[in-house]
Amino acid sequence: MSDTLFIDGVWRAAASGATREIRCPADGSLVGVVAEAGPADTEAAIAAARAAFDDGPWRQTGAAERGDLLLRVATEIDTRREEFVRAETLDTGKRPYESDLDMTDIANCFRYFGKLAADDAGRVVDAGSPDVDSRIVYEPVGVCGLITPWNYPLLQAAWKIAPALAAGNTFVLKPAELTPHTSILIMRVLDDLGLPSGVANLVLGAGADAGAPLSAHPDVDLVSFTGGLATGRIIAGEAAATVKKVALELGGKNPNVIFADACDTDDRLAASVDNALNAAFLHSGQVCSAGARLVIEESAHDRFVDELVRRAEQIRLGRPFDEGTETGPLISSAHRDKVHAYVEQARAEGAVIRTGGAFGTGDHGSGSLDDGWFYLPTVIDGARRTMACVHDEAFGPTVTVETFADEAEAVAIANDTEYGLAGAVWSSDAARARRIAARLRHGTVWVNDFGPYLPQAEWGGFGRSGVGRELGPSGLAEYREPKHVYENLRPGVTDWFTDRGGNR
Ligand code: NAD
């Protein structure tokens, strides 16, 4: 099946005829063969999106009707959930249970923006005169280029597709080349629901070929990108020539700050360690907001880290459909090598690898890991702020451990990052927890928790974690142009320039 590009309402092969094999990272099995687009395909998709925006019916469709379509998308995801879950699981290697949770969040994202679409039609501005009607109306930005990563393939796409459609835009989606299948499925849903041709377009393929035109092309009005910092820089640079709007959701190196009073009883220790484990090792650490930087009060270091290591060693790696699997593989061989190089660098810098630090191979409780890209949960103790391992994003199952003596040092360490996506503080002293939370320079701060996000709440980063916000009302605002309409109800002579007579 290589007719997997969706351009102007038609399923097509790549113009060059090129294809790509998609393989499950857990065992290398063939998941599918999809079209591999090149720049010509993306340019065709941009042209379709441009024509659909400029001349098609979509942007004139009422906001309530657009919202209604999004609500129906949510229902379709629920109806076809098994198919979506299986596709996401095979592409990423994550457990079906996790893919299923993603689908719930994705459906809820479509519901949220479906309801928000018609909520805010603009506002009246007091121009200071009864003879003036001044108002702000929201219009769609135009053609949107949407570029997404492989870790949460459909979730990241949904955060862009839903608000883009709610606002009346047309778009070209370029998902990560390794995980295309749920993007194909969502386009089938949009097609089945009767979205006008050219409104939603899909190109699949490598970033530098299929993705690049979306940031450089003059007919694209906005590029919204989720992925790594290095790619984000390239995209922002290429977008600059046409001064298009840019939204960037980039990486993170997220501190999880634990005070001793969050682990001074058996119950508190169990809760804070358990959450630190999830923060670091959920989806094998391939999470932009992973708590990959543990920052613990000195006096609690030994008992906390001993317990973290004990728990990390029990995590059961495995293939997604095997019973007992708790987390899956890394996305690719190249990515696993990158994670391992990061750990080796930490070792060379003098950090102590308390557990892990090696590929997951052999029989690990649920079958052989040898054909997949597994990496052992890794605890890197004795890390210091000068080390690369505490600043660089590994995007794998690794957590560095640093210690602090007091509140000021905790805040200084937690904010010592070029990123600023997310962070957490754990303390049983509510006043202290709030004090620290107020000082953290991160887009999301959790207090005595790690990880939850809500479609109603903005998501995005301070610093080099990005530009703009997804989700929440700001997530819709990214896809709207506010327009000021100033209407003079009693036009007359202004006398600014003097009429000195003469012939008319
Ligand atoms: P990546 O930057 O390698 O790729 C992301 C997407 O960009 C892919 O679709 C890729 O094909 C495309 N791309 C690559 N080069 C391109 C170019 N020159 N022009 C246009 N498109 C191009 O990132 P990844 O490895 O897929 O994802 C991991 C990264 O994503 C991590 O850094 C992670 O922190 C980040 N991420 C951030 C968030 C967030 O919400 N902030 C969420 C998920 C992932």
UniProtKB/TrEMBL annotation:
Domain of life of the native organism: Bacteria
Keywords: NAD, Oxidoreductase
A Pfam short name: Aldedh
InterPro entries per record: Ald_DH/histidinol_DH, Ald_DH_C, Ald_DH_CS_CYS, Ald_DH_CS_GLU, Ald_DH_N, Aldehyde_DH_dom
Protein name: Betaine aldehyde dehydrogenase
Enzyme Commission identifier(s): 1.2.1.8
Pathway: Amine and polyamine biosynthesis; betaine biosynthesis via choline pathway; betaine from betaine aldehyde: step 1/1
Residue ranges of every copy of the Aldehyde dehydrogenase domain listed in the record: 11-485
Active-site residues annotated for this sequence: E249
Signal peptide: none
Keyword Oxidoreductase set for record: yes
Gene3D superfamilies, per the entry: Aldehyde Dehydrogenase, Chain A, domain 1, Aldehyde Dehydrogenase, Chain A, domain 2
GO MF, one annotated term: betaine-aldehyde dehydrogenase (NAD+) activity
Family: Belongs to the aldehyde dehydrogenase family.
